[in-house]
Amino acid sequence: MKKLALGCDHVGFILKxxxxxxxxxxxxxxxxxxxxxxxxxxxxxYASAVAEAVIQGEVDGGLLICGTGVGISITANKFPxxxxxxxxxxxxxxxxxxxxxxxxxxxxxxxxxxxxxxxIVDAWLAAEFEGGRHQARVQAISEIEQRRx
Length: 149
Known about the structure:
By secondary structure, the chain is an alpha/beta fold.
């Protein structure tokens, strides 16, 4: 992934700023979808902005941060075509890309610190969808989404 959308609520703002620098140092272009301060705000707004950017092909994938990563990932997963995963360690992040073709990664700033967040992001970015037997499962997810629309 060469271009990402990044979004967070007020709880994730500091970690988002640090990850922006990390991603830029790796040559990854980042579109910052907010928030832009520690002033209290609600995560659905930013999850929606990142999900829309992914769906519209504006970016290759998205990163989301809230307190736990749970609420912001639930919101992103409401969008057809989004496969968001919340991870607290690198192994699940890697496998989520390899087996589930995730296109949005979420985590909690109250759960992981900066160095662990960097490892999670790096593992997710380095992994590629393996297809094969996993393709049928991803297709099944898409079919479920289409029935629900």
